[in-house]
Design brief:
70% helix, flat
Amino acid sequence: MTGDIPFFKGKFNEALQFLRVFETSDVVIKFACEHELYASAILLFDGDSESVKVVKEAYALSCMEKCLYAEAAGLYQSTGHFLKAAEAYLESGDYLMSMSCARLELSGEQLDSFLRQVATRLESESKPRDAAYVLSECLGEPEAAVEVLCSAGEWRHAFDISTRHKALRLVEGLVVPQMVLSLESRITELSELNVKLTERSGRLQVVRDLKSRRREREDDESSDIFPESDAGSMVSDFTFGSHTSQATDLTGPSLTIGSTSAKREKYAARKRAKAQKKRKRIVQGHPQEEEYLVEYLRNAVILEQSVDDVVDLIMAFVFVRRMDEAANLQRSLIEVLSTCASFPEDVLEGI
C-alpha cells in the first residue's frame, strides 16, 4: 500500500488523508488497519456511519488482542455489539457493565447462562460477595449464593442473604453445618500450630543457653556450636528453609489459619511450592540453627487476617447461639496468641 504513495515516506497520517480523497473507503480502512490509524480513520469518516462502524470493529478486535479489554468493550458497545461488549467488560473486570450489556442482547436461558458465567468468574477471582450478589439478586438463587459465601467463610453475608430472601432454612440446613466443618479444621490447625510454635520456641531457648555456655568455655576452640555429646543427645531434627526463603513450615496451613478465601489459599500454595524447591535439612546442633528458629517463629506469628477469619467464625457461632462451639474455638485461638506473645522480644521485634 505504501508503495503506491512513496512521496509520503512513512508519514502515514498524511498518506491516510491522501487516500481518503482519491481512494475508496475500503482502501482507506485497510490502510488504517495496517498502520493502526484507527482514531485518525474514525475522524476522517465522520458522517459515514458504516465506515466508522467497520473501523471501530477492527479497532475493538485489535484492543482485545492487546488485552485492552475496557477500550474494546466501549468500542463494541458504541457499534451495537452488546454481547461482545459484555464479554470484553467481563474480561476487564467491570462485571456490572458486563451484565448490563448482556441484558441488551440476551434473554431467558441465554442471559441466565451468561450471568452464571459472571458469578463463576467472580468466585474464581476470590470475590465471593459479588458472586453471591449475582446468584441471589440477578438469578434468584439464594441457596447457590449461600454455598459460595460459606465456602469462603463469609458467614455474616450468608446470614444476610438467608434473611433477605426469607430462607432461614438455609441457616440451619446449610450455613451451620458448614460452620461446624470449618470449626473442626480450624481447631485442628490451631492446635497443630500451637504445638509447633511451643516446640520451636523451647528449642530456641535451649540453643541460646547452649551457646551461652559455649562462650564460657574459653578452652574449647571447636568451630562447632555444640559439642558432639550435646548434638548427639538431640534425637530429632527440624526442616528449615534456605537463606533465600522462609522456613519451610512457614508456608503450611499454620499461616492461613481460618483463611478460607480461595485467593489466600492459592497464594499459600504457591509459597509452599516455591519453598519446596529450596528446602534443606538442618539438624539440631547446626551452626545456623538459632538463625533458622528465629526466622521460623518470626514468620509463623499468626497473621492479622487469619485472626480476623477465626474471630468471624466465633461471632457466627454466637449469632446462632452455639456458645460451646464459639468458646472452644476462642480457647484454641487464645492459646496460639499466648504462645506467640511469649516469644523472645527480638523475635517479635518489627512484626
